Amino acid sequence: MSQFFSNVEPNIIDDEMIQKAIEEKCPEDLGDLARQENTNVKAVTELQLSFKNILQIANLWPLENLTKLQLDNNFIEKIEGLETLVHLVWLDLSFNSIEAIEGLDTLTKLQDLSLYSNRISKIEHMDTLQELQIFSIGKNNLTILEDVVCLRRLKSLRTLNLSGNPFCSKEHYRLFVVAHLPSLVYLDFKLVSHSTRKAAAVKYQELTKPLEEEEGEVLALQETEEAKQKELEYQQAAFVEYLNGSLLFDNLYGEDREVAQLAAIPAVEDLLQAYPSWFVLISENLYNYGLEEYEKREATVSKFYKRFYEILTVNQQESKRTISDFESQNKRRLDELYQAGSDDIAESKRAQGKENVHQLWDALMTLEALVSNDLEELLQDFKRSIDVIASAFIETIQGIYPFHSIQCRDLENGQHEKLMEIIFATMEKLEEEEFGEDVEDVEDLLTDKNTIVNAINVSHHIRLQKIDKRESDMLCNIYKWQNSETEKAFQTECDRNRASIKKIICFINTLQKELDNPVIVEPTK
């Protein structure tokens, strides 16, 4: 790199460079409002930093909505600093000095990636780029043809450029790549023909068939895991995860050695066999109730936002009509004002124009006030609905309706009492030598009365704590949901109202500037 640095000064991306690039992309004839919106870093979706002598990628994190980034023709040596740009779809890092593929793991939406003309020697670290369709890594230092096999994992890949790499000179290079990447449509800027695809499949079938079988097994396992994860996420959203089936019971008794050992006592064994079915029934009732309530919550939120945007749409249509009526007159007025020059007639027309602008301001602000009132009423209704749903859920969980966690506690307490009765009765029989069966195992368990009673009580206390924790988690989740949905809805309206008023102010200011400095509009040819 020193040969380049001797003539130019290498740069690191900073705020000044970013802001300058953003402003360069903005057309000069943009209005104040549009320019302000386009130069806001959070609103920027495309950024071009080509030929900037950049040595290191940094300080791009504020550009959280960036979808297209050009960093080609620089001195970049390492892919870094892109972790937060999760919306990137198009990334150009061609003509740099990059030596390794890295730092792309979070860019899961990437569809087009160019690493052309770098110093990369291995294709790696690309498994998360499942939406990648176009990949250019030509003119690098790739020597091992088998490295392209890892690109099989990128199921969306259709266009690949490898030209200019050392392995391209190998015999049957093109057939090897097409055989191992059968979904490719274009390879090295050429359409993959049917004959090439057929010849490649025949020549390398002994290599590709085991891969296909292995991938089939992996895919089946992946689909199963994804289905499980999706189901778990659904249950978590409903606050009933691990309540279906015997999962909660297994969690309570799975590590209880004392009770498991006591199963050697016949009466205890009978008790333990009957207990799970009752506990599982209560858990499943609670599970089904939770799912039903989740659907109600989702429907309530969906209904609110549907109505919210319906009200906005009506208001926006009315605002557009008001502005359209004004602009049809305003264009004619500006033309007349331009022709009038600076005499008294011009001042009269300017004063009339300002009055009309003021009337437009009143009209737009009135419309905004009306929609704000409508949305405030809608928000209050929504809050009441949310509160009712949350209260009903809390009351159910705490014990007002037939299936609730109190039943779990009652069942556990009853089970514990019966277990203790059996233990005490067995101990009495052992003392009076009335235990008619083989008592050796039972005597070993009940040698120390205090020890066994304390152990059983501790286990019982732990199970009650787990039941209480499960109830507490459900109540905390519903409280969080209640607060989150309410705050989100009110914040959405607050942000909308502020943005709307800001746009109105900028629009009115622009109109007033046009009156003060009228420019005749040339008719479009």
TrEMBL record:
<dbReference type="GO" id="GO:0005929">
    <property type="term" value="C:cilium"/>
</dbReference>
<keyword id="KW-0969">Cilium</keyword>
<dbReference type="InterPro" id="IPR032675">
    <property type="entry name" value="LRR_dom_sf"/>
</dbReference>
<keyword id="KW-0966">Cell projection</keyword>
<keyword id="KW-0677">Repeat</keyword>
<keyword id="KW-0963">Cytoplasm</keyword>
<comment type="similarity">
    <text>Belongs to the DRC3 family.</text>
</comment>
<dbReference type="InterPro" id="IPR001611">
    <property type="entry name" value="Leu-rich_rpt"/>
</dbReference>
<keyword id="KW-0206">Cytoskeleton</keyword>
<protein>
    <recommendedName>
        <fullName>Dynein regulatory complex subunit 3</fullName>
    </recommendedName>
</protein>
<keyword id="KW-0175">Coiled coil</keyword>
<dbReference type="Pfam" id="PF14580">
    <property type="entry name" value="LRR_9"/>
</dbReference>
<dbReference type="InterPro" id="IPR050576">
    <property type="entry name" value="Cilia_flagella_integrity"/>
</dbReference>
<keyword id="KW-0433">Leucine-rich repeat</keyword>
<keyword id="KW-0282">Flagellum</keyword>
